[in-house]
């Protein structure tokens, strides 16, 4: 490992360079400054009093903390529940080998405090869900550098929930950065004013699989060859009884098959590492993408804090996307708010194509994968009545029976298999099968147009409203 000293800024840069140039930006109007805005020392004082929260001290978080501190924010908090792993060290540059096993938030905070004079960073080695509302209310800006969609949805809904329309101070902008390999985005969410995470949840839907026919007949990319080896060749040849994705012998076998397949179709770029990545569904974390996205997020924070220029979300655009896949490409656009967003919208979202003959269990499974809902552990109420609650245990036991009931009015079924419309193979609610008498599959009696309220363990304290539309 190289010595740290070569990365240390010179003493001149420390004492003069950085504050002077920073103050130029913060006190002098530029071509993008709103003419009505007054810049000057009061703006700096105000910024220095601001409390800013960073969520995540990983790849993006390290960059964010360093950038925000160097941009003149003085009171920064950081939340991260993770500890440092050796595999983080190639890009999470605030950590050293001796830090492995320690809290990311704590090590990152101490490192930046040591290197940037006058900044106070308060680390929290906890889950974001563990803080009371007053904790979040105490910040003027929240910046998230998360890799989990669940955590993003949670903080998004929390900040929207905290908005009190009679109190402008309660509006806390959320600057959200995200990266995936060579791609990334940064965006500013002004609760209920701009589109939120939930408004375009479908953009975060699990990626569609490559059709099997493409894998079997016309592979075009190295990934297709690897998936072919993974899905088709492995099943056909069964070189080992079970595929162990952590066993290098198994990955080597897949890699060699994929390589042969690639040669056959003239497709290059198949490596052992790519094979491992595709099979284990790993998207590589890339330091330069993190640096670019964090810089953009910090830039937005600085603009919001100082008014030196119009920030994303205030004007025509609220979303910046970046791609480094084929050369460097970036653009900003307006992502529109959805009036029926279950979190920030005024209208209740309609769930169309619901089948009245689904059991409640089938409906909940569908809700888990529906691109606009993605609620995997849902509890549900309708018209003031609890249909299913996962917790507490007693309520779960009381409502469990409803899981096997149909959403609509149920069906009359003949036990010889002919049904009064629809699926006759289902066991009726009473378990009564004998004789030729007609039996009924009981239903919950919901109508098309019924409004349901869904809660999910992953989003404590939040309620999603939907209207059911039967097909
Ligand atoms: Zn929304």
UniProtKB/TrEMBL annotation:
Catalyzed chemical reaction(s): ATP + [NEDD8 protein] + [E1 NEDD8-activating enzyme]-L-cysteine = AMP + diphosphate + [E1 NEDD8-activating enzyme]-S-[NEDD8 protein]-yl-L-cysteine
Keywords carried by this UniProt record: ATP-binding, Ligase, Nucleotide-binding, Ubl conjugation pathway
Domain E2 binding, first and last residues per copy: 352-471
Pathway listed: Protein modification; protein neddylation
Gene Ontology biological process terms, A to Z: protein neddylation
Enzyme class: ligase
Superkingdom, natural source: Eukaryota
GO cellular component labels: cytoplasm; nucleus
Residues of the signal peptide: none
The EC number(s) this enzyme carries: 6.2.1.64
GO MF annotations in UniProt: ATP binding; NEDD8 activating enzyme activity
Pfam annotation, one family: E2_bind
Function: Catalytic subunit of the dimeric E1 enzyme, which activates NEDD8.
Protein name: NEDD8-activating enzyme E1 catalytic subunit
Organism ancestry: Eukaryota, Fungi, Dikarya, Ascomycota, Pezizomycotina
């Amino acid at each position: 490992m190289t010595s740290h000293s070569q990365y240390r800024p010179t003493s001149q840069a420390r004492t003069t360079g950085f504050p002077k140039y920073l103050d130029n930006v913060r006190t002098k109007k530029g071509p993008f400054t709103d003419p009505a805005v007054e810049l000057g020392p009061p703006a700096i004082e105000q910024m220095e009093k601001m409390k800013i929260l960073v969520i995540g001290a990983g790849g993006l978080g390290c960059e964010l903390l360093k950038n925000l501190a160097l941009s003149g924010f003085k009171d920064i908090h950081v939340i991260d529940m993770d500890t440092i792993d050796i595999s983080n060290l190639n890009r999470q540059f605030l950590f050293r080998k001796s830090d492995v096993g320690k809290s990311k938030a704590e090590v990152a905070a101490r490192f930046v405090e040591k290197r940037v004079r006058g900044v106070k960073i308060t680390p929290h080695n906890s889950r974001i869900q563990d803080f009371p509302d007053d904790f979040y209310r105490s910040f003027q800006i929240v910046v998230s550098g998360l890799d989990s969609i669940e955590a993003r949805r949670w903080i998004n809904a929390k900040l929207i929930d905290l908005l009190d329309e009679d109190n402008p101070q309660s509006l806390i902008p959320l600057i959200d950065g995200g990266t995936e390999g060579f791609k990334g985005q940064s965006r500013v969410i002004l609760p209920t004013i701009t589109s939120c995470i939930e408004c375009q949840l479908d953009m975060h839907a699990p990626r569609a699989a490559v059709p099997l026919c493409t894998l079997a007949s016309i592979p075009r990319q190295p990934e297709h060859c690897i998936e072919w080896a993974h899905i088709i060749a492995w099943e056909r040849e069964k070189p080992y009884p079970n595929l162990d994705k952590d066993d290098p012998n198994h990955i080597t076998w897949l890699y060699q098959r994929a390589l042969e397949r690639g040669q056959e179709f003239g497709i290059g770029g198949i490596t052992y590492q790519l094979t491992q990545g595709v099979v284990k569904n790993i998207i590589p974390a890339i330091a330069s993408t993190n640096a670019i996205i964090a810089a953009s997020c910090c830039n937005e924070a600085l603009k919001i804090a100082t008014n030196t220029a119009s920030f994303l979300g205030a004007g025509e655009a609220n979303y910046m996307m970046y791609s480094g896949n084929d050369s460097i490409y970036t653009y900003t656009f307006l992502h529109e708010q959805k009036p029926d967003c279950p979190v920030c919208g005024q209208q209740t979202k309609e769930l169309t194509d619901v089948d009245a003959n689904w059991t409640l269990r089938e409906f909940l499974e569908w809700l888990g994968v529906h691109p606009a809902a993605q609620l995997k552990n849902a509890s549900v109420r309708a018209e003031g009545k609890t249909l299913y609650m996962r917790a507490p245990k007693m309520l779960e036991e009381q409502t469990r029976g409803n899981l096997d009931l149909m959403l609509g009015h149920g069906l009359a079924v003949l036990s010889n298999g002919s049904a009064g419309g629809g699926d006759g193979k289902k066991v009726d609610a009473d378990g009564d099968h004998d004789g030729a008498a007609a039996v009924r599959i009981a239903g919950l009696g919901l109508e098309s147009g019924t409004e349901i309220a869904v809660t999910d363990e992953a989003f404590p304290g939040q309620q999603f409203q939907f209207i059911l539309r039967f097909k």
